[in-house]
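# step 3/5: fold
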Amino acid sequence: MAGLENVEQPRAQSRTTAARWSPAVEDERAQKALELYGNPAEEEVPLPSLPESAALARRLAQVVVLRWGLSPKMVEDTVLLVSELVGNAVRHTGARTFVLRMRRRRGWIRVEVRDPSRGLPCLMPVQELDVSGRGLFLVDKLSDRWGVDLLPRGKTTWFEMRVADR
């Protein structure tokens, strides 16, 4: 509606409420994704380079981090950053597939997204009103370290976060 872009429009009353996904709870879809695609904490998990794969990668990361027993905030941040790395792999590489891998060692978790492109991701300056281009900015702000490893055929973009070991 012309001229009403920033005005909230009335919504029809619904008798049902949508189930809201929470990264702090392992749900049925996340368990199903693990069964169908594999566990990225145990092996490299190849995924199709499609926009819907970001949701799939989020679910896989959710299950892994929850099973590692990490805090809800750590789960939420990890899921968000996985989504950003996958989004970059899907949007910018032209690849048919990419690979998700997650590792845990004492005091750290590491998430890797490998794709066949040797094009390097670029951390761009972000303005307050930008609606895109924030992916690596978020990775840079929320992770303890991140980087890119060039491979003979492609690259691995990764981030690491400190975790409290029990």
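# step 4/5: annotate
Residues 72-92 form the longest helix (21 residues).
# step 5/5: archive (pending)
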